[in-house]
Amino acid sequence: MSATTTLRQSWIIMLRDLKHWQREPWTPLFGIAFTIMLVLVFGYLFGGSIVLPGGGDYLDYLMPGMFALAMMFGLEGTMTAIANDSKRGVTQRFRSLPISSVAVPLGRAGADLANSTVELLVLVGGGLVIGWRAGGSWSESLLAVALLLWLRFALLWVGILLGLVLRGEGGVMAVQVLVWPLGFLSNVFVSPEDMPAWLGTVAQWNPVSATAAACRDLFGNPTGITTGPLAEHATTVALVWPLVIAAVFVPLSARAYRRLSG
């Protein structure tokens, strides 16, 4: 089956999933509200006591990190939707049609990515309202947004795979167990240079840290990093990490979809 045909099939599936978002908008709205709450807590309650390596305003440091962290939230929604389709027999009906094995999960990923784009734009607008500013050029800012969505796209396939494999209630817990340590063991809230050496090294190699550091640099915000791989190569690392994740989980998701027994 040609790539064009697969993309056309994925587009149809994506439109179907977007209609579900329109009918049930509460999940993304709660996700946005939770992220804004974290910004207010860390930006206004704790931010005054945090001094960044290399200097700079903490709110300007925090916001790009929160954009990256927001790309982690909501993966359990994708996993749950995939699992529910499987349990209700929707997936089996799709499999009975002459369509690509990757079209259905790709359509789901596309719908989630469209929703994530709207959420990200709302968060950027909220950041501007409370005083955050991007000092980079328009092209650099657009590249930062593209890197955020690139990370989201790659992580979606982790949720899709878990939705296909873990179709019970425990699957949601599995995603949350993955999201919280990965999201918080990063440079989102504090610089890795302020952590113990071994913990800072782990945080520096976190995919979320790479995207957050690259976005801070592209937005013209303080990075909080003076040494290490993210000091000079954050954008490259932020491009490579999601590529590696997608290269692993896209084939695994397609394979799990083909082997689905209902």
Automatic annotation (TrEMBL):
It holds the Pfam family ABC2_membrane. Residues 26-260 form the ABC transmembrane type-2 domain. It is found in: Cell membrane; Membrane. The chain crosses the membrane at residues 26-46, 61-83, 118-135, 141-165, 172-190, 239-257. InterPro entries: ABC2_TM, ABC2_TM_bact-type, ABC_2_transport, Nod_factor_ABC_transporter. It is a multi-pass membrane protein. Its main location: membrane. Keywords: Antibiotic resistance, Cell membrane, Membrane, Transmembrane, Transmembrane helix, Transport. Belongs to the ABC-2 integral membrane protein family. This is Transport permease protein. It comes from Nocardioides pinisoli. The lineage of its organism: Bacteria, Bacillati, Actinomycetota, Actinomycetes, Propionibacteriales.
